Amino acid sequence: MKYKIKQAWKSIKIYTSLPHIWVFGIILILSIIACICSVIYMKTNTFLSSIFANIFAGLVTGVVISLISTIKSITLYRTVCLIEWLTSLQKDLLEYIEMYQKMILKNQSDFVDEEVFYNHIYDTLCCGNNINVKISQGRFDYSLPFNSYKYIKDKLEYDAENCSEKNEKLRDKILILDLNNITSNELRELFKDMDKELTCLNHKVLRYITQLEARKRAINVSIM
């Protein structure tokens, strides 16, 4: 419950920083004041009451237009933030894929020595797991208008915390890894689950970025 309250407060702080929210709030307050004044002068001064009623009617139109504009701005802001964050995530995924391919396609003899080869294997594990950390920790980033962990889990069907637990088991295996006669197929089998999940996530992220870009263009056109 406490976490949900923090998330709600985080969203409020982010969205209230948008200028459209303030414009909408000001117009709404002015329309309420005009309505109250119209009611107050209804019996004592019908002329003033009529003037405030006309002002109220005009402001109601402004409230509706401002509300539509505000909703569009919030949607656009959230969409842009998602695109930027997912693009950053995709760069991390590409970094992992590059390290994985280098590990699989190159033999141990291609590295300077056994220690360098082992470090590369371990770094590949860390690179993959850092993606899970980024997704999980993003929920505590108060500059993001969304919960990154929940969003990725719900929209892209990727559970970062569950994958991190699997990676802990992989880490234990790598710590006792014997590099003397290890083959590319054995490394591929060792990283099978991690690579399958991250490669699949990369494809989903790319596809989703394309969808969000289309949504952003549609919002921009409708705003214009």
Name the poorly predicted regions: none
The radius of gyration over CA amounts to: 27 Å
> How many DSSP H or I helices?
8
Strand content: under 5%
Class per helix and strand makeup: mainly alpha
Biggest sheet, open or closed, and with what strands and sense?
Answer: none
Tell me how many strands there are: 0
Please give the alpha-carbon distance between the first and last residues: 40 Å
Mean pLDDT over the residues: 84
Helix proportion: over 70%
String of helices and strands: HHHHHHHH
Instruction: Tell the overall outline.
Output: rod-shaped
Provide a descriptive summary of the structure in words:
The model has no long low-confidence stretch (mean pLDDT 84). α2 packs antiparallel against α3, α3 packs antiparallel against α4 and α4 runs antiparallel to α6. The relative contact order is 0.10. This protein is an all-alpha fold. The longest helix has 60 residues. It is 82% helix and 0% strand. The chain contains 8 helices and no strands.
